[in-house]
Fold this protein.
Amino acid sequence: MGRVLAFFNQDAQLVKALRQGNAKAQRQLYDRYAAVMLGLCTRYVGDGMHAEDIMIEGLMKVFTKIEQYSGEGSLDGWIRRIMVNEALGYLRKNKKSMEENLQQTIDVVAEGYDTDADLEVASLMKLVHELPVGYKTVFNLYAIEGYSHKEIAVMLEISESTSKSQLHRARALLQKQLLEMDKDFNKMINHEKASD
Amino acid sequence: MKKHPIDEIFKDKLGHLPKEPSAQAWEKLSGRMSQSTKRRPPYWWYAAAASLLLGALLWGNMSLWTGTVAPPLGVSESEKVMNRPIEEEPTVVPLTAEGLSKEPAQAPSKPRENAMAEPLAIAHTGHNPVKPDLQKEKAPEVKEPLYTEKVAVIAKPKLEQIDLEADLKLPKTIVPEDLEDNAPANRVILVQVEEPTATEADRNGRLGRLFKQLKNVKSGEPVNWDQVGIDPKSILARVDDRLVGSENIPVLKNRRIKQNSEDE
C-alpha cells in the first residue's frame, strides 16, 4: 500500500482540508493515526478484527464530525477520545460475548510479536487482557489514557468508588502476574545459562 | 501526583503501541465513506419542498382570511343540518315564565352546540311552532313568543316564510333520499343559511374602502373622508381674500352663466 505524501504538514492545514472533504487529507490522517488507534482499540477489545472495525468506525466519525473539532486541544487527543468512546460503545453492546470469548482473545493478542521487545509488549498486552473486562477498562482509562475517576464514572455509568476499587484490584492482579512472569523469566535465563 | 509504578510500566509500553491495520482497512473505510456521502439525503430538496408547502399554506390562509375563497355555502350549511340528530318526538312546552327559567331542565338530553344550531334544529324537527306558522300562515299565540325571543337572542336569523310545497326548488336545501322515504309526510326541513354580509370593500380591507370613497369622489356622491384618512379642511386651497366676493372670480362667473342659461 503506497503511502500518500504529506501534503498537509500542520494539523490546522489538515483539519481545514478534512473539513472540505479532501480525500487526500483523509488518506493522510489514516496513514498518520490508523496504526496507533488500532493499538488503542485492541487494548480495549482484544480481538484484532473487531478492533479494526472499531478503528474504521472511529475514523469515519472523525471525517464526518471534523466540524466539531474546535482546534483548542490536539488533534491526536480528539481522535483518541473518539476511539475510546467507540471502543466503550462496543464493549457495552457486546458485554456478554466479551466475557465468553475472553480466553480466545488472550491467545489472539500474543500473535504478531516476534522480537524480544515485542514479546515483552505482547506479554504486557496479554496480562491486560487477562483482566476481567471491568478491571481492564478502568485500568486502560485511568492508567494509560489518563482519565480521572470522575470522568471514568461518567463514561462507564458507575460510581467513583467503583472505579477506584476496580483500578486497585486491576493493579494488584497485574502486579502478581508481573512477579510470576519475572520468576519465569529468571528461571528461563538460568536454564539457558546452564545449558550453555 | 506521582503515578503508580504499574501504571507507568503499562503506559510506557502500551500507551502508543501501534498495530498495523490490514490491507483492506483503507478500502473498507473509503467504501463506507462513499456510501455515507451517497446516502446523505438532499437536504436542499427537503428545504425547497418545505418552503413551497409553507407558501401554499400561507396563501390559502390569506385567501380564506380575505374572503376571496369561500366554502360552498349552501352545501356546507345543509350538511351541517343533515348531520344533526333528528328528534322524533320533541316536547312542546307552553310558554310560561317558569318554563323559560327552567329551560335546561326540560330538555336535558339536547346538546347545545352553538347558537346557530338551536333555531336550525327547531326548524328541522317539524313539530315546533314554526311549522304550523308556515303551513297555516297563522302562528299559535301561546308558543310564538318563546321561539321568537329565542331566535332574536341567540342568532337573529332571518326566518322567512317559505311555502315549501309550492317552491321546492330551494337552492340551499338538500333532503337525503332515505330521509325522504322514511319521513312522515308532514315533516319539513328548513335550512337557514347565513350568507356573509361583508361587502367587497370590507373584504378588501382598507384599500377597498379607500377605492370606494375615491369612486364616490369621482361620481360626485358623498365621501366619508374618515375612511380615506384625509381631513379635507386641512388640504383645501386657501382663496385669496381679495378674490372672495369679487365678481371677477372666473369659476363663480362661469357658474352664474350656467345657472342663468339653465333657468332660461
Remarks:
- The domain at 1-93 of chain A is CATH 1.10.1740.10 (Rna Polymerase Sigma Factor; Chain: A).
- The radius of gyration of chain A is 19 Å.
- Chain A touches chain B through 36 residues (CB under 8 Å).
- Residues 105-110 of chain A have pLDDT under 50 and may be disordered.
